[in-house]
Amino acid sequence: MKNGQTFKSAISGLSFAESEKIYGKSIHNPILDLIKKEYPDFKDEDCIAVNELNLYRQKYISNYLSTEIGALSAMEKNVIDSLKEDKSIVSQVEDEEETRNLGQRVADKVADFGGSWTFIISFVVFITVWIGSNVYIFLNKGFDPYPFILLNLILSCVAALQAPVIMMSQNRQEEKDRNRAKKDYMINLKSELEIRLIHDKIDHLIMHQQQELIEIQKVQIEMMNDILNQIKK
Q1: Domain residues for 20?
Q2: Most exposed among 12, 26, 59, 148, judged by the fewest C-beta atoms under 10 Å?
Q3: 59, 34 Cβ separation under 8 angstroms
Q4: Quick check: 36 and 25 in contact, CB under 8 A?
C-alpha cells in the first residue's frame, strides 16, 4: 500500500517514494548537524530521502578525514569518489599496469641473474678455467700469468658495474612496495568508511522497523478497543 505513496523532502522540496523516507530523529547527530548547518529550520520530525542522506554521509566522511588527517590526498579523494560512484577500489588498483623502461628491465634481469646460483656456479667455473689455463696449460706464461692482474681487473669492473645495477633494481622494488602499501591503505580506508555507512544504514533500518511496529501496535489496539466496545454492547 505504501509503494504508491510519496513524501516531500524537507530540504530539497522534491517528492520521493515513501520507502525512502528518513526522519531527522533517526539520523546520527554529526550528520544531522551538517544538515542543520545548511538548513537551520530542519527539525527532528522532518523527513529526507535516502539519496540525500547519503550525500551528507559522504560530506561527513570528507570532513572527518580532513580533520583527522589534514588535507585530503589524491588517494583519499579517490576512495571517496569510489564511495560516491559505488565502485570497487580493488578493480581500480588491479587495473594499474606497471610500466618499465629499458634501463629498469635490464637492471631487473641483471639483479635476478646476479643473485642466482647460475651466476655463482658459472663465475666459479670461469675463474677456475682462467687460472687453470694460465698455470697448467700455458705454464704461467699465458695471456694472464700469476698474480692474474687481468683477472683482478675484470673482477673489479664486474663488481663496480654490478653493484649500482643491483641498487637500481632494489630502489625500484622499494618503490613497488611503497605503491603496494598505498593501495592497501586505500582498500583499508574504504573498508572502514563502508563499515561506518553500514552501521548508519542498520541504525536507520532499526528505527524504521520500530516505527512500523509502533504503527502496527496502534492499529491492533484500535481493533481491540472496537472488539471490546462491541462486546459491551
Answers
A1: 2-97+185-232
A2: 12
A3: yes
A4: no
Nearest of 106, 108, 84 to residue 170 by alpha carbon: 108
Quick one: DSSP state of residue 135?
I
Same domain, 23 and 132: no
For residues 49 and 120, membership in a common domain is answered with: no
184, 202, 222: which is the final residue of a domain? 184
- pLDDT tens by residue, 170-215: 888 888 888 788 778 777 877 777 787 777 777 767 766 766 677 6
The total of structural domains in the chain comes to 2
DSSP strands (E only) in 47-154: 47-49
37 plus 85 within the same structural domain: yes
Dist CA 31 CA 64 (whole Å): 11
CA distances from 56 to 64, 69, 139, 185, 231 (A): 12, 20, 88, 24, 53
Q: What is the dihedral of CA 73, 79, 81, 82, to 10 degrees?
A: 160
Asked if residue 83 and residue 131 are part of one domain, the reply reads no
pLDDT in tens, 7-25: 888 888 888 888 788 888 8
**Cell numbers linked to 92:** 581500480
Q: Are the C-beta atoms of residues 28 and 203 closer than 8 Å to each other? A: yes
Contact 135, 146 (CB under 8 A): yes
Please state, in angstroms and rounded to a whole number, the distance separating the CA atoms of residues 183 and 93: 7
Same domain for 107 and 180, yes or no, is yes
| Cα 84 to Cα 152: distance, rounded to the nearest angstrom | 64
Please tell me the distance from the alpha carbon of residue 110 to that of residue 102, in angstroms, as a whole number.
12
Q: Which DSSP string corresponds to 139-162?
A: TT-SSS-TTTHHHHHHHHHHHHHH
Q: Beta strand pairing status for 15-17 and 21-23? A: unpaired
